[in-house]
Design a protein that fits this description.
Blueprint: H1 3-13, H2 15-19, E1 23-28, E2 31-36, E3 43-44, E4 48-49, H3 51-69, E5 77-85, E6 94-102, E7 107-116, E8 122-131
Antiparallel strand pairs: 1-2, 2-6, 3-4, 5-8, 6-7, 7-8
């Protein structure tokens, strides 16, 4: 599937990704790059992008990697997500790069690096495990 096809699946099945304007830049071979554009409603005082938005973006990035691996079909569920906030994300776009470390089986595992789109400065790192409930 192309990144735009994966993006369409995400927007249809996870409406918050559409509401936030998330774009899938790349998704193939257990990896994905997605972008969260600037959104004033996701800023906290400082101002900087809020933690819940960064966590949501990390979760979406891993799902995009799974969709890219499974031809747009994935019913896995997030079982756990751990995130380290390393520096403020600022007010601009953020890029999330996901990599599946264990992409097959009942238990799945991956990591995501989140960085400011303007400078490339890493603002957060997440690890996540998922439970496969699909075929």
């Amino acid at each position: 599937m192309t990144p735009s096809e994966i993006e369409a699946v995400m927007h249809a099945k996870l409406p918050i990704s559409a509401a936030w304007g998330v774009r899938v830049l790349e998704a193939a071979e257990g990896r994905a790059r997605i972008e969260l554009p600037p959104r004033a409603e996701l800023l906290r005082p400082g101002p900087t992008l809020c933690g819940p938005a960064l966590m949501g973006l990390a979760d979406m990035a891993l799902w995009a990697a799974l969709l890219g691996l499974n031809d747009g079909r994935d019913e896995s569920l997030t079982a756990g997500l751990t995130i380290a906030f390393l520096r403020p994300a600022g007010t601009g776009a953020v890029i999330a790069e996901a990599r599946l470390i264990k992409p097959r089986g009942r238990s799945l595992y991956g990591e995501v690096t989140l960085a400011r789109a303007d400078t490339g400065a890493v603002c957060a790192h997440a690890t996540s495990h998922w439970v496969s409930v699909g075929p």
